[in-house]
Amino acid sequence: MDTLDLLLHPVRLRIVHAMSGGRTRTTSELCARLPDIPKTTLYRHVGLLAEAGVLEVAGEQRVHGAVERHYRLRRERAKIGREAAASMSPNDHRHVFAAAMSVLLAEFNAYLDRENVDPTADSVGYTQFQLWLSQDERAELIDELVAAIKSRLDNKPAPGRSPHLLSPILFPTEEPPQHN
What we know:
- By secondary structure, this protein is mainly alpha-helical.
- The protein has a domain at 3-112: Arc Repressor Mutant, subunit A.
- 46% of the residues lie in helices and 11% in strands.
- Strands 1-3-2 form a three-stranded antiparallel beta sheet.
- Strand 2 and strand 3 form a beta hairpin.
- The protein starts with a helix and ends in a 27-residue tail after the last helix.
């Protein structure tokens, strides 16, 4: 299975999100984190991600006579590279976007289903802005966003920190004007 097909499944994308941030988790811990996914489905997709090298075994321990594996995400294997993205057709991009949106919706619903949820206190946001940008301004904006995100990408779990899902989406809404 190629990386694109592997990562485009909504359950596998949610597992990747749940494993990010340098955490190690067992499949049982993933089941607790993603209670809306049937256990057999989750185990099957963890197996596929491990087989493909997206998840690696960080350790094993015996629990009640069975071996329990602790998995860690290999972040470099959990993304679609620039070359692969450049070779995708418009329909491939449509499929990738739909998968990303279905995962985003599932994660947001899981958040809202928690007890004592408070979107205002949690600074939940889903505002959209229309920006008028030249190619240079767009490139500068992307560089600034990437720098801001990268500066926090390696944060590890710590007291006072909780994981947040950030999904920047940027695309032109109209054809650029043609100048003769």
